[in-house]
From TrEMBL:
Residues 278-406 are annotated as: Disordered. InterPro entries: AH/BAR_dom_sf, BAR_dom, BIN3/RVS161-like, SH3-like_dom_sf, SH3_domain. The keyword Metal-binding does not apply. This is SH3 domain-containing protein.
């Protein structure tokens, strides 16, 4: 019960700490944050150096493998310029140089944990133990504030009953006890926190100094190994100018390119003989992909819906509620209309048979009623087949064009979902077609439209013209 009361006390107005105690607590928290940052930095430092050594060793191994003799057909080696003994020796020496450097640096990396990470973690353990003392002091403060608020509330009552007087007496006793406990806890912090904070602040420069010394040692090993290799095999220190490097590259690159292009798997590979396959735009907008991965066509008029925006695209535009008309529609329920099949999506039987795809280059003929019902004839003569084809009913003529109506209707297509937040709104889904009933001259306004048999207001910037 007391723990719940203290939790509730954290939500109330808190009194200020003593100025000296508040400053000590702030210095204590700052020291803890610095130690935590040092521990995380040491871990990242070790990971970074380990990955650097792994990549360097792998690069040297790949160089050594590339310069090796190609075993197999002798004609293959005659067509390419084999590496000289000097190149093979350089590749092998570079591999051995980085391997020995890696072994030395990995041993030095163990000192990072021993000299920096270990002391920082040990100090944080003592800090965590001292946090219990700070937590008990915070509990004493919460008890003091709770009893003080109860005492003040009863003292401010103009008329108190006998029960109130008894409660006031009890709260005053509790207030005296909690105040003494709070003062004792503050005095303990004033005595112990300065020494602990001073020790933490004195340790931090030592840890940073050790980190810098280890970093210099690692860089020294790495530089010494590479410098010795460069001196042994005549590489310039410092390196040559960029123009000289580019000139040497331009001299060597044509020969390497020519040798590479003579390799059969590269010269006649798929990347050379076939172009990059790109998906047509017509296929990208063919279907609407829902969240469950199932594609479906738009339900309005058989038209193809607009492509769905990508996950990282911009959110729907904001609409101004102040521009919304005040017209109210009583029915606020929304149910998406059942997709009705379009007239253009059906085909007559004659159109189907005229447009039926061929199989194996032969024209398929429609089945007779008897064959459709399951009865099969053993054979059909060519005369009867010709007569049946001649007796087939001619396809109907195309329907005449519709006369344009006097009133031209205007439609828009929804680009985003709109659920409608108030009565009179016209909810819709992305891809729905909306007939405009009334609109203004601005796209950043509320228009009136009809969709699925419902009429209402909708934000115009959620749609685009058809």
């Amino acid at each position: 019960m007391q723990k719940l009361q203290r939790k509730a006390g954290l939500l109330l107005h808190r009194s200020a700490d003593d100025a000296q105690v508040s400053l000590l607590l702030k210095d204590f928290e700052d020291g803890d944050k610095i130690l935590k940052s040092i521990i995380e930095s040491v871990k990242a430092f070790r990971i970074a150096w380990t990955e650097l050594l792994q990549h360097a060793s792998g690069m040297a191994t790949d160089f050594d493998d590339l310069y090796q003799y190609i075993h197999g057909d002798p004609d293959t080696n005659r067509r390419y310029h084999a590496a000289t003994r000097d190149q093979l020796a350089k590749a092998k020496a570079f591999k051995e140089c980085l391997a020995s450097c890696r072994d030395v640096i990995i041993q030095e990396l163990a000192d990072v944990e021993r000299r920096v990470g270990g002391p920082a973690k040990e100090t944080r353990k003592h800090i965590d133990a001292f946090r219990k003392i700070i937590k008990r002091r915070e509990d004493r403060k919460l008890d003091f504030e709770r009893y003080k608020s109860r005492t003040v509330a009863l003292e401010q009552k103009s008329t108190r009953s006998e029960r109130d007087n008894n409660a006031l007496l009890k709260h005053q006793i509790d207030l005296d006890v909690s105040e003494k406990g709070y003062e004792v806890a503050d005095d303990h912090l004033k005595q112990s926190l300065p020494g602990l904070t001073k020790a933490i602040m004195a340790l931090i420069p030592q840890l940073v100094n050790s980190q810098c010394m280890i970093q210099n040692t690692l860089l020294g090993h790495y530089y010494t190994a590479l410098h010795g290799f460069c001196q042994q095999y005549g590489y310039a220190i410092p390196s040559s100018e960029w123009t000289q490097v580019q000139t040497e590259f331009d001299d060597v690159f044509p020969r390497v390119k020519r040798d590479t292009e003579t390799i059969g798997s590269i010269a006649k590979g798929k990347a050379i003989t076939q172009p990059f396959a790109t998906r047509p735009d017509s296929l990208q907008t063919r279907t609407v992909t829902h969240k469950n991965g199932i594609g479906s066509r738009s339900s309005s008029n058989g038209a193809l819906p607009a492509p769905i925006p990508a996950a990282d695209s911009m959110p729907p535009p904001a609409y101004d509620m102040s521009l919304k008309p005040t017209r109210t529609i009583s029915n606020n329920s929304y149910s998406r209309p059942t997709p009705s099949p379009s007239v253009a999506s059906f085909q007559t039987s004659s159109e189907y048979y005229n447009n039926a795809p061929s199989v194996a280059g032969s024209q398929r003929t429609p089945l007779s009623p008897r064959m459709q019902s399951g009865g099969l004839r053993p054979a059909v003569s060519s005369t009867s087949l010709a007569s049946s084809v001649a007796a087939k009913k001619k396809p109907p003529p195309p329907p005449p064009k519709r006369k344009p109506s006097g009133l031209q209707q205007e439609y828009v297509v929804a680009q985003y979902d709109f659920a409608g937040g108030e009565a009179g709104d016209l909810p819709f889904r992305e891809g729905d077609r909306i007939r405009i009933v009334k609109k203004t001259g601005s796209i950043n306004d509320w228009w009136e439209g009809e969709c699925g048999g419902r009429t209402g207001s909708f934000p115009a910037n959620y749609c685009k013209p058809m």
